What does this fold into?
Amino acid sequence: MAFEYEKYLRPGKLPHIWCPGCGHGIVMKGLIRAMDTLKLKKEETALVSGIGCASRLPGYIDCCTLHTAHGRAAAFATGVKLAKPEMNVILVGGDGDGTAIGGNHFIHACRRNINMTYIIMNNYIYGMTGGQFSPCTPTGHKASTTPYGNPDPGFDIAKLAIGAGATFVARGTAFHANQIDKLIVEAIQHKGFSVVEILDDCPTTYGRRNKYKSVIEMMNRLKEVAVPVKAAEKMTAEQLQGKVLTGVLYKDETKPEYTAEYAKVIERATAAK
Amino acid sequence: MSKKVAFLQGNEAAAHGALYAGCNFFGGYPITPSTEVAEVMSIELPKIGGKFIQMEDEIGAMAAILGASLAGSKVLTSTSGPGLSLKQELIGYGCIAEIPCVVYNVMRGGPSTGMPTGPSQSDVMCAKWGTHGDHPAICLTPASVQETYEEVIRAFNLSEKYRTPVMVMPDEIVAHMRERIVFPEQGEIEVVPRKSPTVPPEQYKPYDTSFGDVPPLAAFGSGYKFHVTGLNKMQDGFPTTKAEIVQAEEERQVRKVDANIDDIVTFEEYLLDDVEVLVVAYGSTSRSARYAVNIAREQGIKAGMFRIKTFWPFPDKQIKALAGRVKGIVIPEMNLGMCSLELERCAQGKAPVLGIFRVDGEPINPDQILDKIKEVK
Amino acid sequence: MEKTLPKIEIIEKYCKGCHICVEFCPKDVLEMKGFYASVKNLEACIKCMQCELRCPDFAIKVITE
It folds into this structure.
């Protein structure tokens, strides 16, 4: 049966602003399916974003939505979550917003292990501003600010999140559309800071400059590079060259969750009073 | 029953004032000379089920309190110069998204690292012009520990009443000195609650002006769903670039404060009935000014002091009136001339403005002010 | 039991002509007609929902009742 996305969309907002073939719409559909699977109450769900193409997502979703400043989603969301721990708090944003200007708030939200889910739509470019390179643009690739090829090495968002203390890290791609909502569901169910990186594509500002003749080529690349983490265990390093692991990459259910720990602070403070 | 009395530091008084006003969320970051506020809040808030968080930087602290305010909390952050500069973008966010919050900023030697333990009054322009774009500005400048306590309460009330960020800016002397403080009883000082919506969720618009210039604000997680953004927005909270809406909304946001100056602006008039030489002062400098005015009076000079307690909106009306009936205006301030610019603007040449601008990290002392009073012919 | 055909609805107002649905339909049911996607061969549709799943723009619905 056709999935009723309308139940979660604010009326009259489509067509959305994302370019033809941009993967963000696919990720948004995955998020909506995940919200439906979990039957999240819209009034108790806060969707927080920074600035950039991906960060326009909350405007379309019918719940408490907060479109903050560039890079600050995780810090705003920490305020919402700590003030109202009972709310479902979901962050969305792009790779530039999340790991460049937002990097400090990102790693600290991971470190605190505060119970939120951060969906990073990694299209390895700054799309909104016309295609400058980001901390995730592959070395050597072209962007409007790396006309001679990107000299920068990039982040591995998953390793960054794990290293900083996030306790659930998963990766999917815009090609593997039916996996997106499953990863998001598991991430939201996880008690602690969960990161779901979705490898996305930006045909307009990244694809054109890096010899992808069409969206289809970009989608096929995502299909080709992705290797489920289970399958990768049986592959050699050489086979894994240039591949990207997908699925649940890391999960730790032992680390205390931040708002639960703060509740204990309140207990200690009120007991001592 | 006699009232509770204490011997408190300015920063400690600020924290207790916030608690009196119903603050239940503090987001901060350590910085001399305002860290004590954070320390007191980390002790007191959990006792009442409130939330304290020390964020990774001042930007994070400002973001966290804005998020918490949207979730229904009454919020405070405290900082000083360098932190205030870092928070500017999000103070602007608080203005355009119209999010009640209080930013307590202790003025220390600037710019940059400056003199962390030294006093200054050089952030007052920051309070109005620090962030980009047109926006409302309310900034209070207390001059005593008791007044810091009371002005923080007033800041919370103004931020709720006008649904906008409010700044409280003591200089380092006021923030760090200890003085006797008399606590008001519960209910003695009015505490303004948040203006919540009266319409059901499905009709709620976060910037609904059918209720006047200050739209009611619902809370995330209270059954209301709404959108908040830093973009220019329509009444339903969604972004717009329609010229007439953007113009109307920008004007409304500024007007909601500037049209209520008489409700917001406070000051103290000291010996102004027959004043000939007007001393304008604020913060700890006003204590030296009062002393100098008293000595001048003993020496037969009709001096008087107008003490600014609300720096923004600036008390134009009062200064304009006074400028017409004095021979000169003396402005001692711990910066290189900021309030003096506003005084010249208001005096419109009717009276000369003589400044004492001290930025060496030392307070301005009375005889400096007395000498300047005597210069006025 | 005779196979019930779904109804495939294409909302041209939302379709941005990105080709994804046409490309990834396993049964070649769809084609680009001018700028928009359109149904070429409904009978071949096996209701795998790939087109609806992959469309970034909510522009295609596969209605099966």
In short: The CA atoms of residues 278 and 322 of chain B lie 8 Å apart. Chains B and C do not touch (no CB pair under 8 Å). Chain B has two domains: 1-264, 267-375. The first helix of chain B runs from residue 10 to 20.
